[in-house]
Amino acid sequence: MENQSVEHRAIHLVSHCINYRRLCLLCFFFSFSILAAEAAEYIVTPAPNDQFGVSVAGEDIQIVEDTITPYWQFLLWLAAMQILSIIDVVLYFIKLIFVILGFKIVNKENVLDNPDRSIIYTYIKTKPGAFIDEIVEKTGFGRGRVRHHITILEVQNKIEVHKDGRKIRYFENNSTYDEEERKIISALQNITSQRIISEIQNGNCNTNSALAHEIGVSRATISWYMRTLKEVELINEEREGKNIIYRVNPTYENLIEKYG
What we know:
Keywords: Membrane, Transmembrane, Transmembrane helix. This is Winged helix-turn-helix transcriptional regulator. Helices cover about 60% and strands about 10% of the residues. By secondary structure, it is mainly alpha-helical.
């Protein structure tokens, strides 16, 4: 656990150093580009007479003043170069220290080299919408270990987070799922929601009271789940006389079949 904590801090430290270095480079090149944009090419030839600023052949005369680069700009450039070189040295020694101590700095190229982390990522990839307790149960890893590897996967943009009420669910990144799909998949992970949708699809029950009787819960419980299912548009409702009839939205039948 201590190694995991050090590894996690090392990721953030190196990330901050790299960001500072990029910021310094950006500021330097921005300042340089401004000065370069002000520069222009001039051809200076001796005047044929001694009168200053007088046209010889009718050409336009423009008096150009000499410009001198302020000393503070030179000091600024010098300081920027020193800072960049110091950051390089610091990064080098950080990497060297962790190599000597047997630690490995994680980046996008080697993030899945850790076997435990690879198992967790593979589970999230094959079971979109997984949450911490589920991952702990299915992988057999401790909760602290799972949280540690999930944090690293988030930092390296391998997974993304979706909040489903009080639960936090995890999905593969790389734009695999849009926001609408994440909401629907998250709703389908609940066992009671799955049972409600199944009963409606099978034509066994399509009213609040019938679903409550069949599933064995109160009508208030069915109403609570229905609000969630209607929010993500998985369920449509229609009024027939005094009854409200529930039907599955046909638009999402493929997603229901795949993830339900």
